[in-house]
Design a protein that fits this description.
By secondary structure, this protein is an alpha+beta fold. The protein contains 4 helices and 14 strands. The chain is elongated, with a radius of gyration of 19 Å.
Length: 220
């Protein structure tokens, strides 16, 4: 997302405002009523929610042949997989684990149109565990851009109980635009054609809408 569009985004994810605003109102009511210790507790809860639901402004000047990270977190897997449902061939996959301390707003790695979305019920096992992308609850977001496809998969974790998409089928998105969030620790995978090659390493830290994950290979 370019700088001008990035500056228009709210600092707090929309889901957080539904908790933060009532908490601050309740804090004021408790102070007026003389319940100071309880007011401090509620106010601290509001501060925690401000931190957890933060949505820092992100923009990137990366060239159009790059794919940006869809999530904040740590790279836990870089591999080649056989993805039949959305690609029908072997593609690259990068898995990003989001700890409870990471920003949980997910962003589009490239511009394009939302071609398909699919939610799959499942377990809430550790998101960094083996086969979490198979057995855990997840939400698929397929983006199509000029004949190319990029798949973002939001995967619930042990603490996560809500996967919240912000987009819908046929909607156009800009690179770096917020497409959803997952509450608490979780994982986001990105699948892309082998015309792109990963430029990040295992265990490296990445930021949504900012870190370049892959670049298109130069034609020889």
């Amino acid at each position: 997302m370019d700088r001008e569009k990035g500056l228009k985004e709210p600092f707090i994810a929309r889901e957080g405002l539904r908790i933060i605003v009532p908490s601050l109102v309740l804090t004021a009511v408790l102070v007026i009523g003389g319940f100071f210790y309880l007011a401090i507790f509620v106010f601290c809860f509001a501060l925690f929610c401000l931190y957890f639901f933060r949505n820092p402004r992100r923009y990137s000047n990366a060239d159009t042949n790059s794919l940006l990270s869809p999530a904040d977190g740590k790279i836990v897997d870089i591999s080649e997989v056989n993805e039949q449902e959305f690609f029908g061939c072997k593609v690259n996959r990068i898995a990003i684990f989001m700890s409870p301390a990471d920003v949980h707003v997910n962003r589009a790695p490239c511009p394009g149109r939302i071609k398909s979305m699919k939610r799959v019920d499942g377990k809430f096992a550790m998101a960094f565990g083996k086969n979490a992308e198979i057995k855990n609850e997840k939400n698929y977001i397929l983006i199509e851009n000029g004949g190319e496809r990029v798949l973002v998969v939001q995967i619930a974790g042990f603490l996560a109980r809500r996967i919240i998409p912000y987009v819908k089928v046929d909607q156009r998105v800009d690179r770096g635009q917020a497409v959803g969030m997952i509450a608490f620790g979780s994982r986001v995978d990105i699948y892309f054609h082998k015309e792109y090659e990963p430029v990040v390493s295992l265990h490296s830290r990445v930021k949504a809408g900012n870190t370049i994950l892959a670049r298109k290979k130069e034609v020889q």
